[in-house]
């Protein structure tokens, strides 16, 4: 039997000739060799860039799966299999999976474009987004990075940035500084207000317009609660607030304005046993305690 005859023989139970099988195997082997070389070159090229190793590994793995899938399809096509229908089916399935899996990706991409165009936040601004507070480090197409005061990096998807309320703390050039403090009812409210106003008006970083103000916010159980309101430049408000907190305490102490503190007075009354009994039972103790509470009550003073 000649070599040409052997090549034309059909493999039993199939319609594949020996020559077609050998050709398909050569295509398969060469395809795997070329794909490994292509993956190696691709990985080396990515490693020369600043792309993180995790991203390089992910992209390389994705490329290898894609190339191997293409090689297997070419191998089956070389064996005269009808792979077109399978390709269409797989493509449709992949399209559905990608559509569902990348739904959030497209949403984040669209939200990133809106954030970049309308600019509710910008680089270096201190904001509160989706309950997270920090300085804006970067605004990417997929996510926004915030840097907290204790140097923690928070990554927020753009869809949460665009889809939630944004509090921008540094966009406006001026901010109001509010300091809460309480004075006792025995102290002079007029004197306490005058001291607070003088403290704010003489501070070099407090703006003249709008004028500083002192308002009474609450008549609490043991104190009259006041709030100092002063306006300052946004970048100086931290210094102003710290100076006002320490300054008002020192000023009130020097001027004899009492700043009350939480306290509680409890009166304890001795419970004597009933006549004819040497000891007091637990039931008698409870009855006597309830009687004391109802008749005398507890003298409780507190600052709330």
From TrEMBL:
Alphabetically ordered keywords of this record: Cell membrane, Membrane, Transmembrane, Transmembrane helix
Subcellular location per the Swiss-Prot or TrEMBL entry: Cell membrane
Gene Ontology CC annotation, any one: plasma membrane
GO molecular function: mechanosensitive monoatomic ion channel activity
Pfam families (UniProt xref): MS_channel_2nd (PF00924), MS_channel_3rd (PF21082)
InterPro entries associated with the record: LSM_dom_sf, MS_channel_C, MscS_archaea/bacteria_type, MscS_beta-dom_sf, MscS_channel_2nd, MscS_channel_C_sf, MscS_channel_TM-2
Residue ranges annotated for the Mechanosensitive ion channel MscS C-terminal domain, each copy included: 177-259
Transmembrane segments: 21-42, 54-76, 83-102
Entry's family note: Belongs to the MscS (TC 1.A.23) family.
Designated name of the protein: Mechanosensitive ion channel protein MscS
């Amino acid at each position: 039997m000649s070599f040409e005859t052997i090549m034309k023989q059909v493999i039993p139970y199939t319609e594949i000739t020996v020559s077609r099988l050998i050709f398909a195997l050569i295509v398969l082997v060469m395809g795997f060799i070329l794909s490994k070389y292509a993956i190696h070159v691709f990985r080396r090229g990515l490693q020369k860039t600043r792309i993180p190793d995790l991203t390089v590994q992910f992209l390389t793995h994705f490329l290898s799966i894609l190339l191997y899938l293409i090689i297997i399809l070419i191998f089956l096509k070389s064996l005269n299999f009808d792979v077109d229908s399978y390709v269409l089916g797989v493509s449709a399935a992949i399209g559905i999976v990608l559509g569902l899996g990348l739904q959030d990706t497209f949403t984040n991409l669209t939200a990133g474009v809106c954030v970049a165009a309308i600019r509710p936040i910008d680089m270096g601004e201190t904001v509160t987004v989706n309950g997270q507070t920090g300085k804006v480090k970067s605004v990417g197409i997929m996510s926004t990075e915030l840097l907290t005061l204790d140097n923690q990096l928070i990554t927020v998807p753009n869809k949460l940035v665009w889809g939630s309320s944004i509090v921008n703390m540094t966009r406006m050039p001026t901010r109001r500084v509010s300091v809460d403090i309480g004075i006792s009812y025995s102290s002079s409210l007029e004197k306490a207000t005058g001291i607070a106003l003088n403290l704010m008006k003489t501070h070099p970083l407090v703006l003249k317009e709008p004028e500083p103000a002192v308002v009474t916010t609450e008549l609490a159980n043991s104190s009259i609660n006041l709030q100092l309101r002063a306006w300052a430049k946004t970048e100086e408000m931290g210094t102003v607030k710290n100076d006002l907190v320490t300054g008002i305490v020192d000023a009130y102490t020097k001027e004899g304005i009492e700043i009350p503190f939480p306290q509680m007075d409890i009166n304890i009354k001795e419970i004597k046993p009933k006549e004819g009994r040497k000891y007091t039972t637990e039931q008698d103790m409870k009855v006597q305690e309830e009687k004391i509470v109802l008749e005398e009550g507890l003298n409780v003073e507190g600052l709330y």
